[in-house]
Amino acid sequence: MKNLLKIFTLLSLVFLIGSCSEDDSNTPEDPVVEDNFIRAADMSYLPLIESENTVYYNANNQPEIALTTLKNAGCNTIRIRLWKNPADAHSGFNEVKAFAQRVKQAGMKVWLTVHYSDTWADPGNQTTPVAWQNLSFADLKTAASDYTTTILTEIQPDIFQIGNEINSGLLWPKGHLINNESQCLELLSTLSATIRTQAPTTKIMIHYAGIGSGATWFYNKMSTVDYDYIGLSFYPVWHGKSLPDLKSTINSLGQTYNKKVVVAETAYPFTLTWNDWTNNLVGLENQLIPAYPATPEGQKNYLLAIKSLVKETTSGIGFAYWGTEWVAFRGNESTNGSPFENQALWDFTNKAVPAMAAFNKD
């Protein structure tokens, strides 16, 4: 019996020693660093462009789904605009919901820019959806809040941008920041509270077009609104050619209002020529920053500079390229094609351009 006990004890020791040696693989691993820096592309036109049989190509000139090319480049977020009841259903709820599902399946986050309009909303246009135009202010708040709840429930975005470039408010005239400041802020606070209640983990963005004193004035007005991200549009053609001023604005706004800051829209041309007969928004040398010529390398270096300066700030948390997908998709004689094909991230042969490198995680 004693011999059996000794044998059993010896075998137990051998087992324990073997287990310990095998367990070396269970030593603590390096923690996984979460990828929190937003490297986004606005791809809002993609469903329309794909519906007209456009083929995109990767940098190796192989046909590839545009979202796949972006994902492989390091893009981690897709920005999508949402209109209430657009005339042709593009950028409408059903299209955006389906597109958002594709983005999630591709392993990227969804950033919705909710225009609260049936069409383009920007500093000069914030037209209330037709279905809401005759509502009282109280009923308008309810309608906008209910709509927001539907978006959150059915689309579940990671980032919810309340309005688009709302320099003078949204849902005009009732939500005009200059003429109806208290109502504008009440609307924004109502929508923010809806998001916080319905989707506590969703980040809320308030978006302004521009930098400098105008941005400071605007975000001072927003001091009573609950939100997470300051979003800035910065296009050299409209907002000045000084990258140091952009950097200064990001630092100042972030520190003053204790918010993270995103360059929510930017773009730059890889050429000043054109690929269709739709008039381009940028096509002149004096619209450029001299350090960045309108060449594939110039475009790449511009976007890398934007990424770098955001990373160098104390509050910057990312950037988004706008018009990424907007190639001349209706042919080279189209007058209703793209005014942005020389700033897209696919060239005139629909091949991915070098600027895609800016989406790299490093």
Helices and strands, with pairings:
Layout: H1 2-22, E1 38-42, H2 46-51, H3 66-73, E2 77-82, H4 93-105, E3 109-114, H5 137-154, E4 159-162, H6 181-198, E5 203-209, H7 213-221, E6 229-233, H8 236-239, H9 243-257, E7 260-266, H10 296-312, E8 316-321
Parallel strand pairs: 1-2, 1-8, 2-3, 3-4, 4-5, 5-6, 6-7, 7-8
Helix pairs in contact: 5-6, 7-9, 9-10
Task: List segments where confidence is low: pLDDT < 50 over at least 5 consecutive residues.
Answer: 1-25
Can you summarize the main beta sheet? 8 strands, parallel, barrel
Q: Encode the helix/strand succession as letters.
A: HEHHEHEHEHEHEHHEHE
Strand content: 5-15%
What proportion of the residues is helical, as a percent range? 25-40%
The count of strands amounts to 8
Structural class: alpha/beta
Spatial order of the strands forming the largest sheet? 1-2-3-4-5-6-7-8
Give the overall silhouette: globular
Taking the alpha carbons of the first and last residues, their distance comes to 66 Å
Overall pLDDT: 93
How many individual helices? 10
Radius of gyration, in Å, reads: 25 Å
Oligomerization category of the chains in this entry = single chain
